[in-house]
Amino acid sequence: MTISMKAATLAVATACLIGLNTVAFAETTLRIGTVLAPDDPMGQGLDKFAAEVAKATGGEVVVEVFHNSQLGDTTEMLDQARAGAAIGTVTDVARLSEFVPSLAIMSAPFLFDTYEDADKFALSDAYLGWGDELAEKAGLVMLASNWYQGPRHALTQKPISGPADLAGVRMRTIGAPIWIETIRAMGAEPTPMPWGEVYSGLQLGTLDAAEAQPTAIRGAKLYEVIKNVTKTGHIQLVTALVVSADAFNQLSDEHKKIVRDLAVENGRFASNLTIDMGDEALADVEAAGVTISEVDLTPFKEAVKPVYEKLNLTAEADMVHKVLGR
What we know:
Blueprint: H1 3-24, E1 28-33, H2 41-56, E2 61-66, H3 74-82, E3 87-92, H4 115-122, H5 125-138, E4 140-151, E5 153-156, E6 170-173, H6 177-185, E7 189-192, H7 198-204, E8 209-212, H8 214-219, E9 228-230, E10 236-244, H9 245-248, H10 253-287, E11 291-293, H11 298-310, H12 314-323
Parallel strand pairs: 1-2, 1-3, 6-7, 6-8, 9-11
Antiparallel strand pairs: 3-10, 4-10, 5-8, 5-9
Signal peptide: 1-26
Organism: Microbaculum marinisediminis
Protein name: C4-dicarboxylate TRAP transporter substrate-binding protein
């Protein structure tokens, strides 16, 4: 063999080895976005999730976290994920009911009494079956649906004591039927709007009111543009960590299990932070000059009862009660 032939053979062999090494150490990168601040429990949970995924997979799966709507609003991130981008987000499950209507039950009014109830139902066979259906119909994989963001309360400029006080009030809510119909049943005028625009909407008067959980009220500094928080707790905001099915299916079975298990584990971590920080967040909001009020929930609970039948969710509600042993 001539020197030139030897050189060529060596070059081919080297290229093959480089190719093999590239495959062996290839990284799968998932970009997870959130509309919330880094110090929000969801943000802290995602950062911890990213670190633990990297450690457990030896760096072969990389999770990059983007806070404060850096990748867009929640709907925009879901659209990107459905289009096949290696993107995910933490989303209220009701947004996904467009593809699997039964999923709206996770955001139904006055349904879950505690986080533990929601966590238990999110791991039930019935719920996981809806998750499989979501992957088939929408190209989205729910890694875990136990990321609890807290009870949603009414944020207004005037005090409220019942549904009648919300008549004509333009209240920002999430643009999914269960949220819209709940807010309408409570007496307000539902006004869907991206979360990143809520502060300016309240400041400029485009909105009269909003509804949000304690940590988000503090994180978005909404205490600067509202006067009252009424503790309605009308919806327990249970959210899901969702990623593109195309990206998830590129993972090995071993890595899929690691990612799913850590998503559930860190969902509980973030949720417990939410619970621990909730009272502290409301105390900070009150210290900023906002009036925090308790209210008789009976009129609100009565007002939203027709929402279940209107959205054909009575069977799903019965299923929740069955799983929880009620």
